[in-house]
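User: Fold this; tokens only.

Assistant: Input:
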Amino acid sequence: MTCQEVVKKLKAQSNAKNVVGMARFGISTKNTLGVSMPVLRLMGKEIKKDLKENPKERHQLALGLWQTGIHEARILAGIVDTAELVTAKQMDEWVGDFDSWDVCDQVCMNLFDKTLFAFNKAKEYTQKEQEFVKRTGFVLMAALAVHNKIAKDSEFIKFLPLIKKASTDERNFVKKAVNWALRQIGKRNKVLNQAAIQTSQEIQKQKNKTAKWVASNALSELTSSAVQKRLMNKL
């Protein structure tokens, strides 16, 4: 399946009403067709099945889809790309293009967290000032906490000072990602739960409205009976 054929299928699924609805959730309407995530996931599944034996071809297709600048094509690119072939340069270029939280999150969760550069890039991006670049760093942390089953606790412990440092960032797309990263790390296991709770308590002491929200929201979940029971059962 060529890039042109995929784009044609995407445009055939366009829905103007969906675009209006997406805008209400803070999703960018720039070059947006209004194709739903279930449709994108199904298309991605079909493409990966068709090109199962051709990882390089999938990679090239993903690069082509990204270059179209179409909102849904970029989400699809993250779904079908071959993580092993993604370079640090590609990650930087794509992250620089992020203009909507959903594209950021989908690409991180479907692709970037599976690359060789995920941990280092997560730390690097959190040091940047651009809103969606900074968000990417924390979304990567959250995705790694959920998807990477073999990483050591020490890798996630290194994230906590960065989370604490960014907890005063008032920008909506940053603070929510900071909170998300803190919660997901704290739900990974009992050791990280205690570390995340301690970090939350340190954040809570800051005289900053955003930091207090980040901390209180995280503590509410991390200390809940449901989370504590699940973590005890994992021991």
